[in-house]
């Protein structure tokens, strides 16, 4: 049977970079000598992502990694998050999440997102902006934000978090 | 006994049935709606929608109270719905039919009243590995409150329940066996007749979660030889907010009330209150009046159909779906037990069920993706989630084709 043509919003959601990170996630492991680790649950679908990180005494995220099972969106988001934040100060995580969250809900565009974060995260924003296709799929925003919730819980010293809060 | 529905020779006019369901005419994302999630909640025929509108527009007042015409009319309609349910499941008495807000509440009611009264520390409650969370968590709460033990009967990899394996978890300490009649994930029809024999042989009671069973099977609670049977209205083409607890009268009589309030009392003084007899004892407060009337209308609607023809139609849909799905590369069917109901879970290699469901939705195809409120079962099956297509009396072979076409499109997008 011949498949019907795809809609543009599906192409935007599942663009190449998302599928690439979804299928071949970077930093899919547990951080060696991690200083914190937290699991994020999405009770709606049962997806679980565990984020681990090693924070140096000076507050630098020396390494960020994740493991878990999830959809293309949550895995790609976790993968890009780990790439973006490794080597960044831990305090950058909150700002970057704010930017990603607002990109995903359609509140801001890429330029506005760049204004929220430190200048050296500009390239990361360009990449993470690929997640903003979820703005056309409101129920999927939680998939994109799940690993970020886990990371922030991890940095807060908590071991569990959920998208339902 | 679980009577097989006799094969009908009559042609089943699915187009005529579809015309009764207004929502099926709508489009989603500019595509024809293909609703394959009836196991989560079924769509409603206009007969149900009209009955609800009529009740609110012409016959609405509180029940069991007013000595005035409208209240009498509403009470009569509410109680008539109870009689429709009684007849539909062949309960021996109207007193055995309790209206609840859903199947979940019905199970919680049994756990909180019968369970707290008759289950003691060390007693065993047996469930199966295929249960919905609503038939797991209430028993865990009971376990935590009483110190009873929860035992789990295993499921085979094809989704069937092997009765000899089941027998191994039943013993002299078993006080209750609580199982699905039909699995919401796998479609497996459980061997409830054999389970009833096993349970009763050790003096245990049997509760059947009939949420899917009432839709796909012929239910005669006396023939089934169970002690409790619960189901919800909204999966049976009726409204949400209404469910049924059926129990043998002597059990209902022995159970304490679930909630206190109006309508469930015989007399109240500050010193002592005596209860109304069942079912009123379990229906504290203003009940879901119009929802009950709506459920009655859904049963009336089903009674206008040849249910044997409906069953044959649904199993033809299932057979066609199973064959068609198996031909899509990378798809693995989850739940292939013989004689199963029209519910089919599957996974697609390289595509998460959530991503699949999102792409399918853009083709107008509604399926359920996730753990189906059965996380322990997902763990046993070695998946975090599945995609599930469930078929109802209004679905068509063309809709199975639409599902397959949408899945192929999803492969283009996701793989």
Q: Would you kindly provide a written description of the structure presented here, covering whatever features stand out?
A:
Helix content of chain A is 42%, strand content 17%. Chain A has 165 residues and is α+β, with helices and mostly antiparallel strands. Chain A has one domain (38-62, 70-162): Alpha-Beta Complex (Sufe protein. Chain: A). In chain B, the strands form five sheets. A seven-stranded mixed sheet of chain B has the order 4-10-9-8-7-5-6, with helices on both faces. Chain B has a four-stranded antiparallel sheet with strand order 13-14-17-16, with helices on one face. The interface between A and B is medium-sized, with 25 and 26 residues.
Main attributes?
A: about 160 residues, alpha+beta, Sufe protein. Chain: A, 4 strands, about 40% helix, B: about 425 residues, alpha/beta, Aspartate Aminotransferase, domain 1, Aspartate Aminotransferase, domain 2, 2 domains, seven-stranded mixed sheet, four-stranded antiparallel sheet
